[in-house]
Amino acid sequence: VEAWQLAHRDGGAHTAPLGLRLGVDLVEISQMADSQRFGDRFLDRFFTAGEVAACRYHGKLSLRRLGACFAAKEATLKLLDSGGIAWSCIEVVGHASCPTLRLWREAKQRAEELGLVSFKLSLSYQSGLAVALVVAQVADPNARGEHLDG
Amino acid sequence: MDDEIRSILKEHGRLSVEVASLGVDADLYRAGMTSHASVNVMLALEGKFDVEFPDRMLRRSVFESIVSIRSALQELTAGR
Question: Looking at chain A, which residue has its C-alpha nearest residue B11?
Fold first, then answer.
């Protein structure tokens, strides 16, 4: 999905098109519990040590935080419009109240191909659901001569 | 191998349609499998076939159909 809007530049002296891409994902927390049946394999394969540490609360793994972290990876994959990127190439960094994204390998390469900069991530969870929204700015959509339909 | 894949999809795939009705090349995500359910499918496949999906295979496209899952498993079990 790509949204287009007018953004003021140079103090509002003129307007120029600004490209945005977004991705969103919703995870049922109960599915995270299902994954725990497979033990540490699940955590080791899909999350970094830092992500797992950030999902612990008083030493106990918070499934809703873990669900939000997984949703963030999925939302980013949607934003990047590619099913060929490993989940481990997308890392959620920082506390859930102020998370940021770190992209590695093919995720980073794909973002560069799309000319994406300035990623913003927002996470939330309530009533058995976790949601993640990722927005990225296209550096200069006019220069790229590319229009992506949502 | 397809029967075992279908069995795991039935247990972990959370599909919105009957697994038996799906062709081998049917899109599992369109059949209702969430991305997180595909993770559980992958972990169950590892246990069933005693394999470990390498990082390069931990992506949505590998689990999008029975035939793509079969292809990955055949690669992982080749030479046994």
Answer: A34
